[in-house]
Amino acid sequence: MYNLLKGKKGLIFGALNDRSIAWRAALRAHEEGADLVLSNTALSFRMGQINQLADICSAKVIAADATNMDELNALVDQTLEHFGGKIDFVLHSIGMSPNVRKNVPYEDINYAFMQKTIDISALSFHKIMNALYNKDAMADGGSIVALTYIAGERAFPGYSDMADAKAMLESIARSFGLKYGKKCGVRVNTVSQSPTLTTAGEGIAGMNAMYKYAQRISPLGNASADDLADYLVTLFSDLTRKVTMQNLYHDGGYSATGLTEEVLEAFTRGLE
């Protein structure tokens, strides 16, 4: 442990069970000395094991629908009261697509479902920052991070409207990052993680194949949820005070690799 977050206070959205990235991030933040508030929907509380995580991390749990401004405003108020001061870091680990869950093809997408995808997976990030910004809830030099995927920039079959949501999420980070940086030096970034076999990730068609392909392409191999938790700690810490409005790749080099000899040989064998 490096005590990188000693004395810091963080709000983490999206922990469901021990396979959640937000769960792993909360554990690492706690180990590095952070005081935490955990938030998810009331339904997720009933479906998941967030109270177990709260016990481990000595964290307060507050239910809130991240698409609902009234609930988000109440969440921020309760979090500030609990901490007795401002928030140092926030993690947005929220994403869901009814079209993906119901295997609706992208070319014949259900637009009502798509609006829900955008609201849950992208606009929720704007809404969270809106509540934080208007209540002046972030400490000077604080850090806000959202999780994304490279499908926001490149086409991936099976990722459907989640790709559109991720593209919007990354744009929101840049636009709000400009405002928040000017106001009080708050950093806003997104992290593009390797394919990760979480409960949510496994709902994406072809996820296992995507995981294996990325593993072969990435010089360092896929980054695990625990690897990402380590990286997030650095982004929450004071070591990255001048990093903002960036989409940061945490994918073992996948995003910068065109082709490897191993994959090329396997492809050639398949053609023969």
Task: List its salient traits.
272 residues; 10 helices; alpha/beta; Rossmann fold; seven-stranded parallel beta sheet; globular; 7 strands
Describe what you observe in this structure.
- The chain has one domain: Rossmann fold (3-Layer(aba) Sandwich).
- 46% of the residues lie in helices and 16% in strands.
- It has helices spanning 21-31, 42-47, 50-57, 69-83, 98-101, 111-134, 161-184, 207-217, 225-236, 261-271, and strands at 9-13, 35-40, 60-63, 87-92, 138-148, 187-193, 247-250.
- Strand 5 (138-148), helix 7 (161-184) and strand 6 (187-193) form a beta-alpha-beta unit.
- The longest helix is centred in the middle third of the chain and has 24 residues, at 111-134.
- The protein starts with 8 loop residues before the first strand and ends with a helix.
- The model has no long low-confidence stretch (mean pLDDT 94).
Secondary structure elements and pairings:
Blueprint: E1 9-13, H1 21-31, E2 35-40, H2 42-47, H3 50-57, E3 60-63, H4 69-83, E4 87-92, H5 98-101, H6 111-134, E5 138-148, H7 161-184, E6 187-193, H8 207-217, H9 225-236, E7 247-250, H10 261-271
Parallel strand pairs: 1-2, 1-4, 2-3, 4-5, 5-6, 6-7
Number of domains: 1
**Strand order in space, largest sheet:** 3-2-1-4-5-6-7
CATH architecture: 3-Layer(aba) Sandwich
Ends distance = 51 Å
Percentage of β-strand residues: 15-25%
- Please write the string of helix (H) and strand (E) elements: EHEHHEHEHHEHEHHEH
User: How many E strands?
Assistant: 7
Low-confidence stretches: none
Largest sheet: 7 strands, parallel
Percent range of helical residues: 40-55%
From the alpha carbons, calculate the radius of gyration and give it in angstroms. 18 Å
Q: Tell me the CATH topology.
A: Rossmann fold
Classified by CATH, the class is Alpha Beta
Structural class: alpha/beta
